[in-house]
Amino acid sequence: MSKKVHSFTLAELIVVMIITGIIVGLAFSVLRIIQKQIEVIGKDNEKAVQVVFLEQMLWHDFNRMQNVESLGKNQLKMKSELDSVVYDFKESFVLRNQDTIKVAAAVEEVFFESDKVRIGPIDAVSVSCENEIKEYKIFVFKKNDLVFSRKEIVNGF
């Protein structure tokens, strides 16, 4: 008696290999698309981290220093008895003394006692980061001491 061995034909094996190749090719294509999306998300996340870092540094310096002044459209100077910090807003980054913060930000408006000013002492600043994050603005303010308040001194209070 002869036993018959059940097996696949050569044509069936070739069809299976072709289908497997197509599926593997599609899987690698999808993997590359996902990798590109992850890279974009990573870049956006890095931008958000830098913007939040700038905001935290502004809040920290703004409320730590006694004297804060605007030196012009894109420069802020903050002084205390022990330290001073200068922010210089460039087109694609911000210089904080010698530190570089990779954020495209610009000073929009500066205020002193609710009045818009251009140069001189300030107690609030509006910074636009819209080039980094759509419709994102930073607004930093501090409470004035009675000694530094010009309205109270003028009114005699």
Question: Describe it for me?
Answer:
The chain has one domain. 39% of the residues lie in helices and 29% in strands. The protein contains two helices and ten strands; from the N terminus they run αββββββββββα. The protein has helices at 10-64, 150-155; strands at residues 67-72, 75-79, 84-89, 94-96, 99-101, 106-112, 115-117, 120-121, 124-128, 137-141. Strands 5-4-3-2-1-8 form a six-stranded antiparallel sheet, covered by helices on one side. A four-stranded antiparallel sheet has the order 7-6-9-10, with helices on one face. It starts with 9 loop residues before the first helix and ends with a helix. The mean pLDDT is 88.
List the helices and strands and how they pair.
Blueprint: H1 10-64, E1 67-72, E2 75-79, E3 84-89, E4 94-96, E5 99-101, E6 106-112, E7 115-117, E8 120-121, E9 124-128, E10 137-141, H2 150-155
Antiparallel strand pairs: 1-2, 1-8, 2-3, 3-4, 4-5, 6-7, 6-9, 9-10
